[in-house]
């Protein structure tokens, strides 16, 4: 789906700028519409060519606010406060600003002289804004060494097979290998291009002798077939991808490999349960598949290549390096993409979209959405994941404030006593799942916002008031009743105070000398403690404020 469509209109000395209208097919349509209406934002703007720079920038501010709403995801929308026009997250900001830049560039092509000036003012401001997203959000890693042995050979192999790159490989203290710009890469440029023929995809299993026995199994997915294929290919000295397999780590260090000490540190967190369940599921999958395949087809599935440890290694490989790609035949699948698999993740990435093979060039292009200077690490976005997911499947916590680090809250009371659901503001059945995140991320100045998400407050206010009708979080000012407010804050405290007790005080061991998993588990627990304490502190300040205004 194109992010932006361009409609140029010029009548009577006006430039018309159209953002794509909100689509009713967007599952978040009604909430985005409500928010844009509440803020009086439009998706079509008219700029007189005679406008002063100040006037142009004022309209641009409105355009940017509207684009931010268009590009909001569910979490950003859930936490959006009515007095905060953004930015909401580096991802949302980069998407929004890039979509406007694409539109302006397209308007500039063939524009008449009088409108070029207005468009240039817009363009230069947008470029400044994009650059400042990087400056404000990036936390650089420390390069340990640039020269990278086998990785260098992987790059040479790639270039011999049609890879084009403006990246070289470096080692970083915090993240192992990563990619660094070997020259200045400008916004919109392609940092890396991988021919489709180098992508490890389902087709390779279909072409192999494994396909016959595998396709006879019930319920086996293409992803699992490919995982089993990679377990053997890893040791195939004649593999076309030998150099790729040779550069893979011996150990992946994801949450799936946490030892007992690390798991003990996680006591009191939801992550402990998640990790144990994920591992148990993998073990069940292994037991159901590998022993039988090895017994029935010993020539194809050699027992020594299909041990539990090797299966777990392959799972970690696919979880931490797999990319969802739409191939040129239109099929979507999880693939391994040599060289691209060396890019690290950032909350403020350079590369946001990379999942579709270009039909005309039959290659996967990694285009930067913000510039990357020579020598800077070039980052990818792995997705909008909370820390628990990144630890489980990738084995790290990103630096900086992660807006997707949310704690879910399930409420049973989705309906009123008479059984009506609360459809007043959502237009859909009411949420049963709410969430919180660190209240330091809230930018609202409203006295009754408490740093908590508007839908959660609306839900609790209505449930505790007893009328069961939720106020639209962005709608007319909610009626503030002090006793109701107190009850809301006390309810939140009654959930989070026991959690804080359960998680306990900060572990007082020497982290720097601990194993990687124990240190990571302790960092995760600190983060959870910080989020929970921010919620309880905000509630206590809210209660104090209510007392003071009594
Ligand atoms: C796709 S690979 C990237 C290349 C990887 N650094 C390597 O040396 O093979 C994903 C892995 O890189 C590491 N990684 C990626 N982004 C990171 C980050 N921001 N901080 C720490 N580690 C990161 C994690 O170990 C993750 O599982």
UniProtKB/TrEMBL annotation:
Domain of life (superkingdom): Eukaryota
CDD domains: SET_LSMT (cd10527)
Keyword match Transferase: yes
A single BP term in Gene Ontology: methylation
One protein family per Pfam: SET
Domain SET: residue ranges: 165-383
Keywords: Methyltransferase, S-adenosyl-L-methionine, Transferase
Keyword Acetylation belongs to the record: no
Annotated GO MF terms: protein-lysine N-methyltransferase activity
Protein name: Uncharacterized protein LOC103701561 isoform X1
Organism: Phoenix dactylifera
């Amino acid at each position: 789906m194109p992010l932006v469509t361009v409609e140029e209109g010029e009548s009577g000395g006006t430039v018309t700028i159209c953002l794509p209208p909100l689509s009713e097919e967007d599952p978040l349509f009604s909430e985005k519409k409500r928010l844009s209406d509440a803020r009086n934002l439009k998706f079509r703007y008219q700029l007189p060519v005679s406008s002063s720079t100040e006037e142009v920038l004022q309209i641009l501010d409105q355009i940017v606010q509207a684009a931010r709403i268009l590009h909001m995801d569910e979490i950003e929308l859930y936490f959006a406060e009515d007095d905060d026009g953004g930015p909401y997250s580096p991802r949302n900001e980069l998407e929004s600003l890039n979509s406007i830049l694409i539109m302006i560039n397209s308007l500039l092509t063939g524009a008449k002289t009088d409108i070029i000036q207005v468009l240039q003012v817009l363009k230069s401001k947008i470029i400044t804004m994009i650059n400042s997203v990087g400056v404000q959000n990036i936390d650089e890693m420390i390069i340990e060494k640039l020269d990278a042995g086998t990785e260098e050979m992987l790059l040479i192999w790639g270039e011999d097979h049609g890879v084009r790159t403006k990246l070289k490989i470096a080692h970083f203290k915090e993240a192992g290998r990563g990619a660094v710009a070997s020259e200045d890469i400008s916004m919109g440029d392609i940092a890396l291009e991988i021919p489709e023929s180098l992508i490890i995809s389902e087709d390779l299993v279909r072409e192999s002798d494994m396909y016959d026995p595998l396709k006879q199994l019930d319920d086996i997915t293409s992803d699992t077939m490919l995982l089993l294929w990679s377990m053997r290919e890893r040791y195939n000295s004649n593999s076309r991808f030998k150099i790729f397999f040779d550069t893979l780590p011996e150990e992946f260090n994801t949450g799936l490999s946490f030892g007992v000490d690390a798991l003990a540190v996680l006591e009191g967190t939801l992550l402990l349960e998640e990790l144990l369940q994920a591992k148990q599921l993998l073990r069940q999958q292994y037991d159901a598949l590998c022993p039988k395949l090895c017994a029935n087809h010993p020539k194809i599935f050699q027992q020594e290549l299909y041990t539990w440890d090797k299966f777990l290694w392959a799972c970690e490989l696919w979880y931490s390096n797999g990319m969802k790609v739409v191939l040129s035949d239109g099929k979507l699948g999880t693939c391994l993409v040599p060289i691209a698999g060396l890019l690290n993740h950032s909350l403020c990435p350079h590369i946001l979209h990379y999942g579709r093979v270009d039909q005309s060039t039959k290659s996967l292009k990694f285009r930067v959405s913000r510039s990357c200077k020579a020598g800077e690490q070039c980052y990818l976005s792995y997705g909008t994941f909370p820390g628990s997911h990144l630890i489980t499947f990738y084995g790290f916590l990103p630096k900086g404030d992660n807006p997707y680090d949310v704690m879910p809250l399930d409420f049973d009371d989705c309906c009123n006593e008479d059984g009506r659901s609360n459809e007043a503001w959502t237009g859909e059945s009411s949420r049963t799942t709410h969430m919180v995140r660190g209240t330091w991320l809230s930018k609202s100045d409203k006295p009754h916002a408490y740093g908590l998400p508007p839908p959660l407050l609306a839900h609790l206010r209505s449930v505790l008031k007893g009328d069961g009708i939720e106020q639209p979080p962005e709608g007319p000012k909610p009626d503030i009743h002090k006793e109701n407010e107190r009850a809301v804050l006390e309810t939140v405290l009654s959930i989070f105070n026991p959690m804080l007790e359960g998680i306990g005080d900060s572990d007082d061991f020497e982290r720097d000398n601990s194993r990687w998993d124990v240190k990571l588990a302790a960092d995760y627990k600190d983060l959870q403690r910080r989020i929970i304490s921010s919620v309880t502190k905000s509630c206590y300040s809210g209660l104090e404020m209510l007392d003071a205004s009594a």
